[in-house]
Amino acid sequence: MLRNKKILWGALFASTTLMTAASAQTVTAVMHSGLRMMDPIQSTAFITREHGYMIYDTLVGIDSNFKVQPQMADWEVLDDGKVYRFTLRDGLKWHDGTPVTSEDCIASIKRWLDNDNTGPVLEGFLADYKVVDDKVFELHLTEATSLVLDSLAKISSRPAFMMPKRIVEAAGKEAVSEMIGSGPFKFVQAEFRPGVRVVYEKNIDYIPRSEPTDWTSGAKQVNVDKVEWVGMPDAMTSANALLNEEVDFIEKFPFDLLPLVENSADLTTRVIDPLGNWSYFRFNHMYPPFDNKLIRQAAMYAVGQEDVLKALVGNPEYYSTCASPFGCGTPNATDYGTDMIVPANIEKAKELLAEANYDGTPVVLLHPTDHVTAAPQPVVIASALRAAGFTVDMQSMDWQSVVSRRSNTSQPSQGGWSIFATYGIIAAAGDPFANTTIAANGKEAWFGWPDVPEIETLRLEYARAVDDESKQATAAKIQELVIDEGVIVPLGQFRTPAAYSNKLQNIPEAPITVFWGLEKKG
User: What's the pLDDT score for residue 436?
Assistant: First the structure.
């Protein structure tokens, strides 16, 4: 069977020469999924975000201490915090050879705000945009806020990627049709095969910053000629391709296959993102049974993080429990709610169900069967809820069906849902705006539609804070409400190792997978 899989894979990718070792200056990578959605401003898919970082750049970046740093531009704050003046650095060019201008950046910011969840809040602070000259522009505010830099620097999803004004205006409300950025790589349109193969070549006109590389800040020095992403949905096939030197890098190596590569003298397995990911589940707050706060809390007591993490990861080297929706290891994390959502407490869950007079309304639980990082959680959740006395209707489907279904606002019994589970990167969970799951503004909130006005008031208070101490104090209040109201339920944190050829060196640590900085030897 394995031999047949390799033959089929070889036939599929013969035209891309993957069955021979890649050239010394080409890195061949298997990413966590194939690339189909191309516009990182319209899509929040992680693979689309990674594509964005290959070809686009941002005005500011963020380092491993969660500090905003200059990237495309330096800035100064004027008029008691009500004017941000950005100055583009010298030598910035779009991939078509034209210079990056202030008008390009303002057009990009406006389009990003129209699509990103930060938009409605930040736009409430924006009074005007002003072009000073081709390299200098200003954002004028009605009052001081730290949200300007925090939002422009956020790492996911959607980062504020800069694009040419002509492409932004041509797209309107649709996806952009040209992949033209100013970033360290260029997209090779002629070699693109959606979901199967993406090729990026070094942008020889890119001038890296002089500071050390640190997350999305500092130098984005490209040391190879090309990077090729190849789609291989079968994990065993990709593992054998790495062992046979047919690919150089696997972004997310399956935990259960690690023994195949851990003892190879030619390969390295390493966690590139030390913070990693957090898993969580979401209630539908609009309909029974989870329109009732006591019943939401009963479910939260029933599900133990350790049980979920054992099923999802298995190896405790790669996971840890954490109650914070901001992610442990980030500046805004606290341990509030640990007693409710880390250990399972079935007896407490039963008490709350009795107090709430739970009538047996079925919990429609969405279970994706084809997504390795989202499939185990619903199985554990279902078992825990049943043990507590819930009636559970777990409905299995593919991940794309879950993504479609979770936007359905119908009753759970009529095509809607009660619970779904997924995951995100911790580095993007650290504040109430980058973390889309925190918003609790009813029908305008993320899927699940919690309506907790106090949280929205505190989010605005957070935006108005201009020092870290004030922001952290407000974030602590937000976390208490998020946990008490069951806005989002953390299921713990995990770190997924990458596996790669020892020919690759100096791979940067970052919450996203980047290909600047690395080198290929031999």
Answer: 87
